[in-house]
C-alpha cells in the first residue's frame, strides 16, 4: 500500500490534471494499492491539513481539462520560514500533516517557487517527487515544462489574429506575452506568429533600434509591424540600474506595463499609430494542447514509476528528448533563461527578426 499526498502550487497552467492523471494511472496499473490525499490550493492545503481523499474516478476524464482539480495558490518561499498570523510554524505544520497521515511521499507539481519549497521539504526529511509545470518554461534542469507549449499556441493565435487587422490598418501592434522574467514564451510565440520584432528580458532593448527596424520595414513597403513583447522586457538603460534603483523607479511608473511604455515612446518619436494587446491569463487557460497532454502524461507516468521504486528527491525532467530524473537540490533556486547567444536567437536574427538590440 502506498499513501501519496499530491498538490499543485503556484500559478496554474494547462496539463496539470493530465500530469496527475498520469501518476495515478501508472500507480493503479501496477496493481499496487494506493491512497491519494489531494491537498487543496497548493502548500496551503498541506500546512493547514486541508485535503480530499481521491480515487481513480477523480482522475477519469481530466486529460483534456485545464486548470487543476486540486486548486492552486502562491505561498512565497521567503515566507515559509515565517510563522503565520496565528504563530503557526508552516514547515513544522507540513511535516506534522505528512507524518500524521503516514504518507509515503508527496507529489508536488509546480514551477520555480514551488521547487524551492519542495527542496526544503526534502531537506527536512520528507519523500518528495516533483513535476515541472509552468507556461514560462524557466525551470532549471529540464528542456521543457508542461503548460509551455499550450501557452505558445494561445499567444501565437493572438499574434495571428493581430496580423490580419494590423495589415488592414497599417499600424504598429504590440502583443504582450507572459513569461515573468524570461523570454521563452515570447520568443517561441513571436517566431511562430511571424513577429517582426521580439523583445525579451534577456536582451535589453534600445528604443531607437526598434524604430530603426520599423522604419526599415516601411522603406521596404511594409506598412505594419508586429512586435511580440515579453511582460518582463527591459530597456538597456533600465538594465543598467541596480535592483534598488530599478525598484525605486518603478514606484512612480506611469504605465500599466512595459508594452504601453514602448508604445508611448514609439508614438512620440514617430507619430505612428501603435496599439497594445495583452492576452494575459488566457495564455494559462483552456485545454492543454496535444503535445502537453502527451508530455504531461509521460512525466506523470515516470513519477509513478519512481514512487513504485521508492526513488525520491527528484524532479522528473526532460533533456534531449528523454525523460530524466533531476536532483531537487540542483533545480531549486535557479532560473533557465534564454541565452542571447542561443542558436534559436541567432536563427531568428538570420530571418530578419529584430530584438531591438
Ligand atoms: O508563472 C506563470 C505566470 O503566468 C507568469 O507568466 C506571470 O508573470 C505570472 O504567472 C502571473 O501571475 P499571477 O497569476 O499571480 O498574476
Q: Helix and strand layout, with pairings?
A:
Blueprint: E1 2-8, H1 16-29, E2 34-39, H2 43-47, E3 51-54, H3 90-100, E4 105-110, H4 112-123, E5 128-132, H5 148-169, E6 172-177, H6 184-192, E7 197-199, H7 207-219, E8 225-230, H8 236-240, H9 243-251, H10 258-270, E9 274-277, H11 290-309, E10 314-319, E11 322-327, H12 328-331, H13 343-350
Parallel strand pairs: 1-2, 1-4, 4-5, 5-10, 6-8, 6-9, 7-8
Antiparallel strand pairs: 2-3, 10-11
Helix pairs in contact: 1-11, 5-6
The chain binds 6-O-phosphono-beta-D-fructofuranose.
6-O-phosphono-beta-D-fructofuranose binds next to loops.
Describe the 3D structure.
By secondary structure, the chain is an alpha/beta fold. The protein contains 13 helices and 11 strands. The strands form 2 sheets. Strands 3-2-1-4-5-10-11 form a 7-stranded mixed β-sheet, with helices on both faces. Strands 7-8-6-9 form a 4-stranded parallel β-sheet, sandwiched between helices. The chain is elongated. The mean pLDDT is 97. 6-O-phosphono-beta-D-fructofuranose (F6P) is lined by residues 11, 111, 134-136, 178-180, 231, 284. 6-O-phosphono-beta-D-fructofuranose binds next to loops.
Mean pLDDT: 97
- Give every kind of bound small molecule, once each: 6-O-phosphono-beta-D-fructofuranose
Q: Order of strands across the widest beta sheet?
A: 3-2-1-4-5-10-11
| Number of helical elements | 13
Shape estimate: elongated
User: Which parts are unreliable, with pLDDT below 50 for 5 consecutive residues or more?
Assistant: none
- Which bin fits the share of residues in helices? 40-55%
Approximately how much beta-strand content do the residues carry?
Answer: 15-25%
Note the gap between the termini.
58 Å
Main beta-sheet strand count, sense and barrel state = 7 strands, mixed
* Rg, alpha carbons: 22 Å
Helix-and-strand structural type: alpha/beta
Number of strands: 11
Q: What sequence of helices (H) and strands (E) makes up the elements?
A: EHEHEHEHEHEHEHEHHHEHEEHH
Amino acid at each position: 500500500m502506498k499513501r501519496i499526498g499530491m498538490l499543485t502550487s503556484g500559478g496554474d497552467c494547462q496539463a496539470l490534471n493530465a500530469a496527475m492523471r498520469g501518476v495515478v494511472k501508472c500507480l493503479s496499473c501496477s496493481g499496487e494499492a494506493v491512497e491519494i490525499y489531494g491537498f487543496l490550493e497548493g502548500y496551503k492545503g498541506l500546512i493547514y491539513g486541508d485535503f480530499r481523499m481521491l480515487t481513480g474516478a477523480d482522475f477519469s476524464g481530466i486529460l483534456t481539462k485545464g486548470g487543476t482539480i486540486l486548486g492552486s495558490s502562491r505561498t512565497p518561499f521567503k515566507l515559509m520560514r515565517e510563522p503565520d498570523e496565528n504563530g503557526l510554524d508552516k514547515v513544522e505544520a507540513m511535516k506534522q500533516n505528512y507524518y500524521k497521515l503516514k504518507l509515503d511521499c508527496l507529489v508536488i507539481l509546480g514551477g520555480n517557487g514551488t521547487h524551492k519549497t519542495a527542496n526544503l521539504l526534502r531537506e527536512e526529511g520528507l519523500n518528495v517527487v516533483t513535476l515541472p509545470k509552468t507556461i514560462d518554461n524557466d525551470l532549471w534542469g529540464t528542456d521543457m515544462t508542461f503548460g509551455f507549449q499550450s501557452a505558445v499556441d494561445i499567444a501565437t493565435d493572438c499574434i495571428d489574429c493581430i496580423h490580419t487587422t494590423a495589415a488592414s490598418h497599417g499600424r504598429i501592434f504590440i502583443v504582450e506575452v507572459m513569461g515573468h522574467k524570461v523570454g521563452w514564451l515570447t520568443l517561441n510565440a513571436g517566431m511562430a506568429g511571424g513577429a517582426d520584432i521580439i523583445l525579451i528580458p534577456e536582451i535589453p532593448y534600445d528604443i531607437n533600434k526598434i524604430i530603426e527596424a520599423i522604419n526599415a520595414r516601411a522603406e521596404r513597403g511594409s506598412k505594419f509591424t508586429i512586435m511580440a513583447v515579453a511582460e518582463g522586457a527591459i530597456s538597456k538603460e533600465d538594465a543598467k540600474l541596480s535592483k534598488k534603483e530599478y525598484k525605486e523607479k518603478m514606484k512612480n511608473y506611469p504605465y500599466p506595463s512595459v508594452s504601453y511604455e514602448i508604445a508611448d515612446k514609439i508614438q512620440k518619436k514617430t507619430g505612428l499609430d501603435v496599439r497594445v494587446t495583452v492576452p494575459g491569463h488566457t495564455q494559462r487557460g483552456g485545454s492543454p494542447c496535444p503535445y502537453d497532454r502527451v508530455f504531461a502524461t509521460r512525466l506523470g507516468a515516470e513519477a509513478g514509476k519512481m514512487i513504485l521504486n521508492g526513488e525520491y528527491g527528484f524532479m522528473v525532467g526532460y533533456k534531449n528528448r528523454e525523460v530524466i530524473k533531476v536532483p531537487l537540490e540542483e533545480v531549486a533556486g535557479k532560473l533557465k533563461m534564454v541565452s542571447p547567444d542561443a542558436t534559436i536567437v541567432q536563427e531568428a536574427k538570420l530571418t530578419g527578426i529584430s530584438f531591438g538590440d
